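Agenda item 2: magnesium ion complex prediction
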Amino acid sequence: MPIRVLPPDVAAKIAAGEVVERPASVIKELVENAIDAGARSLQVDISQGGRRLMRVADDGCGIPADEVALAVARNATSKLHSADDLYRIRTLGFRGEALASIAAVSRLTLSTRAAGEAVGALIRVEGGALTHREPHARPPGTTVQVENLFFNTPARLKFLRADPTEAGHIARLIASYALAFPGLRYVLQHNDRLVLRTTGTGRLEDALLAIYGLDVLEQMIPLQAEEREEEGVRVWGYVGSPGLQRADRRDVLFFVNGRWIQDRSLAYAVSEAYRTLLPQGRHPLAVLHIALPPEDVDVNIHPTKQEVRFRHDRLVFTAVQRAVRTTLMAHYPVASLSVSTGTGGPWAPGGQGARGGLSPTQAQMALDAYRTGTPPRADRESPFTRPQETPTERLPMLRVLGQIAQTYLIAEGPGGLYLIDQHAAHERIRYEDLADQKARGQVASQELLEPLAIELSPQQAGLLEGRLELLAGYGLEIIPFGGSTYLVKRIPSTLAGGATARDVPAALAEMLDAAERGGEAFSWEEQALITLSCHTAIRAGQTLSLDEMRDLVRKLERCQLPHTCPHGRPTMLHISQAQLEREFGRQ
Ligand code: ADP
Ligand code: MG
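Presented output:
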């Protein structure tokens, strides 16, 4: 389509007000224009964090010489012409605003040649005014150079951060587009130094490798094929193994028909899928593509086009959550420990894991992360060992040998030696058991001979009031007894025993505390379930008979996700037979 100025009624329907906020907003628009122009290759150069210069060169379709001036005019676009087009947008841009907005606050030079034309054109715009125009010889494609951003708006200039910060925003942006369109080649240079280069093979895996490196890639799992299709919604991509943890959600990325978007509800869907696999407050790495008919998604709701609205939002939410969860359930690998061959004590990273799943280095990194609460470092060396063998989500048959420190069970299996944390393991068993009973509509419970009176604060009472029914569903029947006193009448059978009088109030206090803290990615029911599981589980420091140990391990073997407790801690550590042999010099 030729570039045309939009009729006023169409322009009025557009969620306008595109703001050029920082260098990265400029790069975003220029990159989107290049992609819309069908470029195969994008070269991005910036200097001084983008504030001095930003240049995006593409090999796309170019702009016909007689339309070049229109390209920088406001509300002029070649991407839509009628209001109806707004409901089936297939391009990243559609408002015809970006170049005009950028040109108004910078010195912009645009050179271009349309594929079918002999000579191209070059124009220069300073603070919005066209100052220069000439015929220009160049290969087909377009180069837009933006210098001295905000030179005429000192107030905005003041808000820019230090160069490395602005450059970091730009790098993250280019990385996102590389993940969104892995078939394009991207080069990003800052102050003439290479920051990022992708190969444009079209494989998401190659883009991940270029951006995150081998260490991260080997811990990424492709989404499972079976669950991808769901009534016109297709979800694909990669999710990080639970060992890859982040302190924030910045590496949970969503692309809707190639558009990088932010969406709290989808972020929540992913958190839900990882629930009980990651410790609280930690976030996974995930790169998720969602494809759906353009008419089912409204991209015209936000000035930066970074938020969208789905016509069937529930459907999209469920498709994402299921795809991620199914993949995690099938792939979540067993943590295996290696015995060191050098310094660093017996549990330091070293040899090779003999079973499928995490390599020893990865396992150690994951464990380090659990212990220190920091994400695993990505700069350690490790061989590329993708979990090729059958994923070991289930446990093999284990032979219990005994108990250590009244806390850990030691067991032998076909893959070597296992150390099992008795409390964490029992929590996992209880959790799945309670969830299962609840799903079948009957949690085994028993009536207390004498109801247990509990005093709550007025605030706690308020929180409890709305949740009585849900708790009753889990076999915990509590009734109001005037004021903020409550009577516990029935408890889940698992909670019954000597310590009821202490455990029930403690569990309740913990659940109400969680309800108070809430948080965005929070399901109180899930939290209640975790608390009930925790309070009914065997504790550390408890002596177990051999029969009790065997019973525990048998039940763990039957769990869906035996390798972590519901809080996300590992239930067991594994030392492979091969590692033992190597350490004892038998191999
Ligand atoms: P929009 O992308 O919303 O249409 P812009 O202001 O970003 O608005 O661009 C205006 C027009 O200029 C586009 O519609 C397109 O026709 C043309 N254009 C801009 N950048 C390029 C490019 N890199 N290659 C080809 N055409 C371009
Ligand atoms: Mg645009």
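Discussion summary: The first strand starts at residue 4 and ends at 5.
Owner for follow-up: CH.
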